[in-house]
Amino acid sequence: MEMLSTEVSGFLANSSMIRKMFEAGVELKKKYGADKVYDFSLGNPDLPPPAQVKAALHEIADKADQPFALGYMPNAGYPDVRAIVAAKVSEEQGVTISANELIMSCGAAGGLNALFRAILTPGAEVICPSPYFVEYGFYTGNFGGKLVPVKSKDFTFELDIPAIAAAVNEKTKAVIINSPNNPTGQIYSAKEIKELCDALHAAEEKFGTKICLISDEPYRFLNFDNVEIPSVFSYYDNSVVIGSYSKNLSLAGERMGYIAVNPKMYDLEKFMAAITMTTRILGTVNAPCIGQQLLRTCINAQVDLEVYRQRRAVMAKVLEEAGLEFTLPRGAFYFFVKSPIADETEFVKELAESCVLAVPGRGFGCPGYIRLTFCVSEKVIANSADAFKKVMAKYK
To answer: Quick check: 248 and 221 in contact, CB under 8 A?
Structure first.
């Protein structure tokens, strides 16, 4: 008799292509040497945290012998840290929020799960543009919800507002967008956000329901062309912003994030109480205490954006010279590249045979493309040029 649930057994049988490619990379590096393998599979920030983080860790360590130095705090987080983060989010979003509208979370992922636990019922639907972050389907499914992907515009990956509007029905509980986007690097314009919010207002009126608009923004600081990243708070009352410090402080393993709620949210006090409770009952209890304490002095620190900007330029050159087609990512640290053949999984296999590791686009809900991350050294990117050319030569 099977110990595991049927659902999880199915998940294992179709486990994440990102992890599969990462594991394949480990084997290739053993066989050929790390310097001969070009691993663009996993978005794991490789830059060290800013110097302020090291200094803050020393300060935390010096006080670790005090009572409750690393103990429990309120489920929503340290009150002073919530106030510090709320002030920073207010600055970024152009809408003032207080500590009362912000909850610290175990990364953006923990924030999304706490939010979905609070708002989803079995059969509820969550709409998202595709391609999309692969875990969204799991996060909604955790609580009986269903992810409803809606295809974005070909190649540019701008939002298809009429298609999203057509997908909304009486079961729609939330719409989630991710800007800058993983895997495409697209940043949605103010015009797109306004049109999306207008469509959701109309849907709320039509169906007599409340629809939560979620903006997932862990890549907000990775904005290479300094374009506007519009705030959903400015256009839609029932909105939530999810963020994290995994990328800008290179603290991915510390799992430090937040849930920021529009002060105009329907039944705000009850909404905040619900997410505070779900943070507790999901077993996370509270966001990591060390990560929260780091934010007291590191809230305005970040890794050098120019390093990622330069890597983007080098990878664009490598891909162009190999003859690959792509839309230059405006943010995040991924290229979403058109496969030269319809079945991108076969193309990924051919790349792997030349020690280049990529992820098939179908894992993100968009077959025919591959994802390449550029949070690797500039040297690795540059040295991959010949391998890309070798594989692409057969398609010219």
So the answer is: yes
Interval 303-332: pLDDT, tens = 999 999 999 999 999 999 999 999 999 999
Q: Contact, 215 vs 242, CB < 8 A?
A: yes
pTM for this predicted structure? 0.95
**Residues in the chain, overall count:** 396
Measured CA to CA, the distance from residue 258 to residue 132 in angstroms comes to: 20
Instruction: Return the pLDDT at 13.
Output: 64
Give me the residue label for tokens 């290229």.
335
Query: Does the bond joining 74 to the residue before it have cis omega, within 30 degrees of 0?
Result: no
For 225-248, what is each residue's pLDDT tens digit?
999 999 999 999 999 999 999 999
pLDDT at 127: 98
CB burial of residue 64 (10 Å; 0-12, 13-18, 19+) = exposed
Cβ-Cβ contacts under 8 Å for 75 (sequence gap 6 or more): 276, 277, 279, 280, 285, 286
The residue among 88, 136, 74 whose CA lies nearest residue 276 is: 74
Among positive and negative, which fits the CA dihedral 44, 239, 289, 279?
A: negative
Distance CA 384, CA 95 (A): 44
Question: Is the Cβ–Cβ distance between 200 and 161 less than 8 Å?
Answer: no
Q: What is the pLDDT of residue 266?
A: 97
Separation between Cα atoms, residue 234 and residue 92, nearest integer Å: 12
- Residue appearing with tokens 């994802």: 371
Residue keyed to tokens 């949605």: 188
Nearest to 138 by CA among 167, 168, 113: 113
